[in-house]
Specification:
Helix content: 55-70%
Largest sheet: 2 strands, antiparallel
Number of helices: 5
Oligomer: single chain
Strand content: 15-25%
Order of helices and strands: HEEHHHH
Amino acid sequence: MPDTRFSFTPERFKEIVRDVLVKARARGATATETEVSESVGQSVTVRQGEVETIEYTRDKGLALTVYIGQQLRGALGALVALAALLTGPFFFVIGVGMIYDRLRDYDAVIAALAGVTAAAMGMLMLVVVKGSLRASRTDGGLLIITSVAMAIGVLRWPMIPVLLVAAPVSIGLAWRRGLRNV
């Protein structure tokens, strides 16, 4: 008989999320994002035609983002978010570059990076499509996206100057839209 203590019904997941959201609201949250997940997996490693290892995984997760006043804790939250977005990836890219410098002449590394590049391009295209669909719902959002794509992709203008112009214009449009919605 299988062990059912691990699995939750959709109703139980909803109950967990409701409990977490009630506690977040009691502490001053004005908006939240919650993700609950459960997964079961199996991995089999075969070497020279023989099974070498069999691994089973069972994971549960709860991710919660709490907004207070529609902000992630104001200026301090913005500073922490900026540091998190820039610091970790900066050192990661430096480390990966150092590793690549030592391994770049191996055919296996070249083949693996070709696959990673294809996967990254697919994910990038998905992010662009989803972001474009979301931004095109607003007045000016589609105009900004189209203008940036044309300037960089078609006219071959340098990306940094284009974004230095497009970002403030986009923020201004969003700010103006926010004032009209008040």
